[in-house]
Amino acid sequence: MSYPITQRDIAVLNAIDDFGFLTTEQIRRLYFSDCHRSVVYRRLGILHKRKLLKYATTTVKGCYIWRLTSKAASAIGSSHVLKTINHNTVYHDVLAAEIRIMMEGLGIGSNWTSSNRLLRQSRESNYSNLENIPDWLFTFHNKSKDMTCALEVEISLKTKRRIKETVEQYRDGRGTDMVWYFVYSKKMGELFQNKLRPYITEPNAQGWLHYTLINDFLSDPLKAKIHTMNPSFEIGSVCNPKKLNQKFPRNGSNTPVDKNETESTSIQEEKNL
Question: Is residue 258 located within the same domain as residue 231?
Fold first, then answer.
């Protein structure tokens, strides 16, 4: 039986290459929001049968995560294949992907580069202008100007020594206008900021390291606060949303529904892979 590849399938492969991996639910929201859930299960199943995708189960609500095979990477012109999934960090990595999806969808961030891609670029060039490799490096659309931002998702408390080293490495590095931490508690965010206080007399130090509470952002991203060294602001009040010049279409809006996608299938197909 033939399994034709659709335009939407190619868009999904490009997105997974960009993110490193995505969950079934993230793929559904990005590319199949206009379809029945069975369609995404069918398409991912076909890409798996065509040996273009690999999947693994996770402890994150029991969802599947999907990554490219070497065959898929070659087909879309990518030089990178995520060989394994680190199950010790998968919750963090799924959350980091979710934060990017929400920010990019609102148009408050663009030109995203993942930690995997940054690390690969660093190894290939034997040099990096970043002492730390952030979860994401992107352009934040601030109302006053666009800013190069390093985004870090922290779900567990580091030692004070490690926090001090991290802050100092970012401070001494080049290539970023701001560092933005997403944390679960105010205490964790303030620990990072407190390590910056010895340098507070330096130009722009107060506007350099910020944090946002993860649960606030997931609940209402534009009303979630960016906590600076002095005042705090709602994200929606300081950002300048821009329509993205996307490298691939999202939500199926520019991807016509292919008849091969709409054939009926059981909603349990994903479980039968």
Answer: no
Measured distance CA(231)–CA(192) in Å, rounded: 16
Residues 59 and 126 in one domain: no
pLDDT tens profile 120-136: 776 666 545 555 788 99
Domain residues for the domain of 178 are: 108-238
Q: What is the pTM of this model?
A: 0.81
Average pLDDT over residues 38-64: 88
Per-residue pLDDT tens for 77-133? 987 788 788 878 889 999 999 999 999 888 888 899 988 888 777 666 654 555 578
pLDDT of residue 117: 80
How far is it, in rounded angstroms, from Cα 98 to Cα 218? 9
Task: Please name which of 129, 84, 138, 74 lies closest in space to residue 110, comparing C-alpha atoms.
Answer: 138
